Write the structure tokens for this entry.
Amino acid sequence: MNITQINFLDINKNEEYINILSKVLEKCFDEENLNDKKLYINIVLTNPQHIKKINKEYRNIDKETDVLSFPMFEKEELEKRKSLNPDILGDIVISIDKVKKQAEEYEHSFERELSYMAVHGFYHLMGYDHIKENDKIIMRQKEENILKKLKILK
């Protein structure tokens, strides 16, 4: 059984957010055949000021962003450790205000934008990246697959 802990930092607790994130991450674990593992993901939902502070502290980038992921292992380490059942995949930090703004900007529903941030963060924790074009294509296909299977399209 996998555990997703959802925390609210400097924003009000919201059951809708919890429901969306739980459903999306359950599908991510399912699609990656991780249901037989005991994995833990910590999600922090916060405001622009706090995510900017985290971005500066850990990445030396002094600006707000939408989502940050802090994987416990590199992709190669995860592959080697599959039989060892690592307990913690890592942390995902999401700026709810940024999600709302981007949903409007991209003309998506709030559910779609929050779901995308969660899926995007999940695949970073799984060792995927989007710096190189080939890696970006693989990561985007995985992200879109999850959203499509959940019928979260717009």
Remarks:
- DSSP finds six helices and four strands in the chain.
